[in-house]
Specification:
The protein has about 140 residues and is an alpha+beta fold. The protein is about 30% helix and about 20% strand. The strands form two sheets. The protein has a three-stranded antiparallel sheet, with no helix packed on it.
Length: about 140
């Protein structure tokens, strides 16, 4: 398995617009909303963070239900970043998961446990170390 790699390039005439690409050839944009000085050409970084958690949650639940052959027919995940405003310390993410299909109460409870164990959830709630270095030319 390859190491997930993403490149962000802000070499643009459009302020705050960033072109993102990954090691598998995907290309997408990030930007700030207009009221934040950007051009709103793509989601802002906090929304990208929420999208990673939402996608991982939905995919993890679908994979688990498929392995168990449970009748999960769809998953909706709504995420909000600091919905009550910025807390005194840390940050808050709320996640509301809607499971579709004729699942039993026991299956639904187990899927909630699985949602809390998706890989991105574990990253966000665990210790993260970020090593940063400068590369390239200097003026």
């Amino acid at each position: 398995m390859s190491i997930p790699t993403v490149r962000a390039n802000a070499n643009s005439a459009t302020p705050f617009m960033v072109t993102l690409s990954d090691d598998q050839g995907h290309l997408w944009m990030a930007d700030e909303p207009i009221d934040g000085g950007g051009s709103n050409t793509g989601p802002a970084p906090h929304r990208l963070l929420l999208s990673a958690l939402g996608a991982c949650t939905a995919i993890t639940l679908e994979m688990y239900a498929a392995r168990k052959q449970w009748p999960l027919t769809g998953v909706d995940v709504e995420l909000r970043f600091n919905p009550e405003g910025a807390p005194a310390s840390g940050n808050d993410i709320t996640r509301a998961v809607t499971l579709q299909g004729p699942l039993t109460d026991e299956q639904r409870a187990r899927l909630l446990q699985i949602a809390n164990a998706c890989p991105i959830h574990k990253v966000l709630t665990g210790e993260v170390r970020i090593a940063t270095r400068l590369e390239g030319e200097h003026a």
